[in-house]
Design brief:
The structure is a single chain. This protein has 263 residues and is mainly alpha-helical. Helices cover 56% and strands 0% of the residues. It is built from 13 helices and no strands. α5 runs antiparallel to α6 (141-154), α6 (141-154) runs parallel beside α8 and α9 (190-196) runs antiparallel to α10. The chain is elongated.
Length: 263
C-alpha cells in the first residue's frame, strides 16, 4: 500500500490498524514498554475485526470425498421380451396299451420288475382301476395277486365286489393280498362282504366274517347274529362270535349267551 503525506496526519492507532490490515497479521509486540491505552484499545478492535473477517471469508473446501458410483438401475425388459406365462399342461393319461403292458409285467420272473409295475399302476390311479379289476380274473396267479395289491393301494370301492369273489381261491398269498385290499377300502366294502356270507364255500364265508370283524362294521351285527346258530360250519360260527366281539354291539350279547348253551 502506498501512503501519501496525508496519511501522516492520521492518529497512530489508525495507522497501526492500516498496517496490520496491509500485512495480514498482527505486528510483533515489543517486550517493553507496554503500548499506550489508546493503542491497546485499537488493537482489541483490530482483533475483533480480524475475527469477523475470518468468519465471513469463504472457506476453502476440502477435497471432495469420491462418491461411490450409483448402482445401475435394474434392466427393464422391453414389451417384446416379456413372454407370457403358460399354464401347466395336464399330464396325458396313459393309454390302454401302456396299462396292459404294466399288468402283463406283474407276472415277470423278476420280483423287482413286478413291484415296479405295481407301483406304476398305482401311480396311474383311477384310470387303471377297470383294467386292474379285469386282471383279478387273469389266468396267472401272480397277476391276480399284483392286481389285488394295487387295488388295495388305490382304495377304490369299485374293487370290493370283485375282490370278494376271489374268496373261494385257496391261495394263501392271494388271500393275504385280498384281505389287505378290502381292509384298506374299509366301510365301503361292507355290502360286498355281507353278500359274501351267502357263498356256498365255507372258506369264503369264513373270510367274509373275518373281514367284517376286522373292519368292525356296526351295520353287520344284525346279520351276523342271525347266522350265529344257523351257519352249517362250526368254524364259521366261531368266527362270527369273534367278529361280534370285535364289533362290540350290545345287541349281540343275548345271542352270544344263548350260543354257549347250543354249542
Amino acid at each position: 500500500m502506498e501512503w501519501g503525506h496525508s496519511a501522516m496526519r492520521l492518529p497512530p492507532s489508525i495507522l497501526l490498524l492500516l498496517a496490520v490490515c496491509a500485512c495480514g497479521g498482527a505486528p510483533a509486540r515489543a517486550a517493553d514498554p507496554q503500548p499506550p491505552p489508546a493503542v491497546a484499545r485499537d488493537l482489541e478492535i483490530l482483533n475483533r475485526m480480524r475475527q469477523q473477517r475470518t468468519m465471513s471469508a469463504p472457506r476453502t473446501s476440502s477435497p471432495a470425498t469420491p462418491l461411490a458410483a450409483p448402482a445401475p438401475a435394474p434392466a427393464v425388459a422391453s414389451p417384446q421380451a416379456v413372454q407370457p406365462v403358460r399354464a401347466a399342461q395336464p399330464a396325458a393319461e396313459p393309454d390302454a396299451a401302456a396299462i396292459a403292458r404294466l399288468i402283463a409285467a406283474l407276472d415277470d420272473d423278476a420280483k423287482e420288475t413286478r413291484e415296479q409295475a405295481r407301483r406304476d399302476l398305482v401311480e396311474i390311479g383311477p384310470p387303471a382301476v377297470e383294467e386292474l379289476i379285469d386282471a383279478l380274473d387273469d389266468a396267472e396267479l401272480r397277476v391276480r395277486i399284483g392286481a389285488a395289491e394295487a387295488l388295495g393301494a388305490l382304495k377304490d370301492p369299485r374293487a370290493a365286489e370283485p375282490l370278494v369273489e376271489l374268496f373261494p381261491e385257496p391261495s394263501r398269498e392271494l388271500w393275504g393280498a385280498v384281505f389287505h385290499a378290502l381292509s384298506a377300502i374299509g366301510s365301503p366294502a361292507v355290502p360286498a362282504l355281507l353278500d359274501g356270507l351267502e357263498s356256498t364255500a365255507s372258506n369264503a364265508r369264513w373270510k367274509a366274517v373275518h373281514l367284517l370283524g376286522a373292519i368292525r362294521a356296526p351295520g353287520a351285527a344284525e346279520t351276523l347274529v342271525a347266522l350265529l346258530n344257523k351257519d352249517r360250519s362250526t368254524g364259521v360260527r366261531v368266527e362270527i362270535a369273534a367278529a361280534l366281539g370285535k364289533i362290540k354291539d350290545r345287541t349281540a350279547c343275548d345271542a352270544l349267551l344263548d350260543a354257549l348253551h347250543d354249542w
